[in-house]
Amino acid sequence: MTTTNAAQAFRAAVEGLRMDQAIEQLHPDAVFHSPIVHKPYVGRDAIAPILLAVGQVFTDFRYSAEFGSDTGHVLLFEANVGDRQVQGVDILQYAPDGRIGEFTVMVRPYSAATELRTRMAAMLDG
After folding, report:
1. In what order do the strands lie in the sheet with 72-81?
2. For residue 124, what pLDDT band results from cuts at 50, 70 and 90?
3. Which residues of 71-109 are buried (b: 16+ CB within 10 A; e: fewer)?
4. Domain ranges, residue 18
5. Are strands 72-81 and 84-94 parallel, antiparallel or unpaired?
6. Confidence at 4, pLDDT banded by 50, 70, 90
C-alpha cells in the first residue's frame, strides 16, 4: 500500500460513511489527537469508537480540499454539528508501512467544538 492510497482510501471511506473501512487504514498502533481531549488515544481499537461516533454526530460532512506530501495528507472538511457549522482539518501522518500512523483533528469555531464535545461525550460515555 502506498501512502497516497491510505489517504485516498480514508477519504473515500469517511465521505461514504463507511467508518469501518476508514478504521482499516489506521496502523494498529496509530495515535489520535482529538480537538477536545488533551490526552491522545493510542491504538486503532481505542480510536475506532471515536470514528464511529463522528459518523453519527457530523451531518452534511464533506471534504473541500486536500494537501499532500510523501509524509502525510491534510484534508479540509466542513460539516454541521447540530445547528453549528464546523470547519476543520484531518491531519494524517504516515507510518512506515504506509498506513496512517498519526491522526490529528482540529476544528473551528469554538462554539462548534463545544457542541462537538457535548455530543461526542454523550455517545461515548453512554
Report:
1. 41-42, 26-33, 100-108, 84-94, 72-81, 59-68
2. confident
3. ebbbbebebebeeeebebbbbbbbbeebbbbbbbbebee
4. 3-125
5. antiparallel
6. low
pTM for the model: 0.91
Residue 2 binned pLDDT confidence (cut-offs 50, 70, 90): low
> How far apart are the C-alpha atoms of 89 and 121, rounded to whole Å?
20
Number of domains present in the structure of the chain:
1
Chain center to CA of 91: 8
Residues ≥6 apart with Cβ < 8 Å to 95: 27, 29, 30, 101, 102
Q: Which of 64, 84, 66 is nearest to 74 (CA)?
A: 66
Tell me the CATH number at 88: 3.10.450.50
Name the E strands within the chain.
26-33, 41-42, 59-68, 72-81, 84-94, 100-108
Put residue 60 in one of left, alpha, beta given phi > 0 → left and psi -120 to 50 → alpha. Answer: left
Strand 26-33 versus strand 100-108 pairing type: parallel
